[in-house]
Amino acid sequence: MRPTTQPRPGDGPPVLVTSRPLDEYCACFGLTRAALGRLPGPVLDCPGGAAALAAEARGLGCEVVAADPGYALGPHRLAALAADGRAAMAAAIHRDPRRHLPADRHRRPEKYLRSWDRARGLFTADATAHPDRYVAAALPRLPFADGTFALTLSSYLLFAYPAVFGPAEQLRALRELVRVTAPDGEVRVLPLHDERGRHCPHLTELRAALRHHRIASRVLRTGPTTRVLTLRPACPPRPGTYRPAARSERTAPR
């Protein structure tokens, strides 16, 4: 899909501003509402865009903080950019519905896009009422203390726009997401392909670099075509012991 409107870190091209609802987050990231409600700490959504995750998750007893450089524009301006993103998505679905609709393709495109409209409205109202939950910040540097979040989610940015985030920038951003996540928490990142559907060609090397920085990773299948990169701080081995890579890391799909 062609990126539109909202600028992001660095001097690369702008990217699409989206307004995805909670149910789409759950389906893509392999989460459930019940699991979100049981989390022992807050969730970070980075970049949050005009999504409804923070607004909808509050009803589950789950605290969500969203980070996005677009929040400096104010919720109404960002919602207008998300409306442009919705139009771009509608055009993309018209061109290639199999690629851009969720896996449950029995859903009509109009119904799917209405879920974005609803999410955009929820975001606008929530960001206006609770501006402290929407932090104007951009990867690879976030204004949060180490270990703040029980779960960190990052969608449609790091691998989707390689002109904005090259391999070195991806590594720095992933390390930053791990830094702000609790040692017993988890980071989940998707998709693992760019806006044209091309899979990240250096994912193996990137995961090796993460291991060098004591970050364990695996690739989780959450749908027929959806893969999520999950990250956790690696437990340090005892002095004098050798610990081979976990089997899941050697065999996870790339």
First-to-last CA distance? 22 Å
Proportion of residues in extended strands? 15-25%
Query: Main beta sheet, described?
Result: 7 strands, mixed
Radius of gyration (Å): 18 Å
Q: Please tell me the overall pLDDT.
A: 87
DSSP strand tally? 7
Which geometry do the CA atoms define? globular
Q: Classify the helix fraction into a percent range.
A: 25-40%
Q: How are helices and strands ordered from N to C?
A: HHEHEHHHEEHEHEEH
Side by side, the strands of the main sheet go 3-2-1-4-5-7-6
Q: Can you count the helices?
A: 9
Class by helix and strand content?
alpha/beta
Catalogue the unreliable spans: 1-13, 236-254
Gist?
By secondary structure, the protein is an alpha/beta fold.
